[in-house]
Amino acid sequence: ELVVTGAHLSPLHGHTVKQIEADGFPIVARIENLIYSDHDSARLQGAAAQLQVLTHVVDERRPDWLLAPADREESMTLALCGTYMNIATAHYAAGDRVVGNADDMVRHAVSRLSHLLLTTHEQARERLIRAGEQDWRVHNVGHAGIDRLRSTRQLTTSELANALGVQNIDDQFAVIIQHPLTSEIDNAGPQMRETMSAALELGLQTFVSYPNSDPGSNQIIDVIEEFSSHPRISVFKNIPDIEFVNLLRRATVLLGNSSMGLLEAPYLKLPVVNIGRRQSERHHASNVFFVPADREAIVRQVRAIMDNGIGECENPFGDGHTGERVAELLATRAIDEKLLNKDLSY
Q: How far apart are CA 44 and CA 62, in angstroms?
């Protein structure tokens, strides 16, 4: 059962709850908690509103497990419900390290509040054990985003172009996904302008997706719209899963700072130019190149990739069967005193 919140219910972000409905998942509650603001308190106010409603939903349904995903406010609120109501809580994508963003601290706090920790790679599993988590609680399951890359059906180039509403898709093109950094909110717009200016200088056909709902996102959207009339740039509030996966399969380079560039793109051997400090210090494969938010640096790195490629690229984030592993763990793990009475073994 799913509780759907935040940007999934927002028309500004494509009202993606429709995709959840189309996939047939049972939605037991919809919590409107997204606050349209670039102020740094907005996410916290949204989390408070979310927690108030979520508490009643969890109390009423009393599920066997709560599954808290990654590092955003819904992970924290769900884990708090599990802690105070003594409900088994699993934290997916635990143990990653992302310096410079509030999400990093939230992720580690959620792990402390959870009973079963599911990591996307081995380094994250080892980090949690070093931090005092009992090793039997921590499981490397891989990254679930790779499941969709493995299983999504293939579209022809013409089918993809039609679905995206463009006349054609070039042999070489870029995809841009860039989000604000909580420690650099005031710079979100100027940083995005460097990225978009670099795309124009490169001359590649470019597909741009709106950012997430973090403070600073309005600045990024304003910059995207400034460039949206250019004939080589196509802008989307949200790109549906099938089209998005097929776009990534063909892309020449992914620009921006999305976590999927680090966690999912290695499976496709897709070159990624990560711009700025978001994702700093995060575990990554050799397909990722870090550059400052500077037009010249971005252009230089993309051209180097186009000239030289990325060489061998090993994928440390799993084989596309993460969902099966998580389901097996939740189905077979006994919910007993040993699980619920957590002992941090410092």
A: 25
CA dist., res. 20 & res. 138, Å (int): 29
Strands (E), 220-305: 233-236, 253-256, 272-275, 288-291
Percentage of the chain modeled with pLDDT above 70: 99
* Per-residue confidence (pLDDT) for residue 199, from 0 to 100: 97
Give the pLDDT confidence score for residue 346 in this predicted structure: 66
3-state secondary structure (DSSP) of residue 129:
helix
Give the contacts of 336 (CB within 8 A, at least 6 positions apart). none
Which phi and psi (to 5°) does residue 262 adopt?
A: -90, -40
Q: 5 and 30 in contact (C-beta within 8 Å)? A: yes
Tokens of 49: 């509103």
Mean pLDDT of 204-224: 94
The answer to whether 89 touches 329, Cβ cutoff 8 Å, is no
Residue 120 has which token pair? 């996307």
| Cα pseudo-dihedral 108, 109, 111, 115, rounded to 10 | 170
Residue 101 has pLDDT above 80, yes or no: no
Residue 134 has pLDDT above 80, yes or no: yes
**Long-range contacts of the stretch 271-278 (C-beta < 8 A, 24+):** 271/305, 271/309, 271/310, 273/298, 273/301, 273/302, 273/305, 275/178, 275/191, 275/194, 275/195, 276/181, 276/184, 276/191, 277/99, 277/100, 277/181, 277/183, 277/184, 278/98, 278/100, 278/101, 278/179, 278/181
Closest CA to 112 of 87, 95, 97: 95
Q: pTM for the complete prediction?
A: 0.86
Q: Are 227 and 200 a contacting pair, CB within 8 Å?
A: yes
Residue with tokens 């590092």: 71
The pLDDT tens digits for 10-26 are 888 788 899 999 999 99
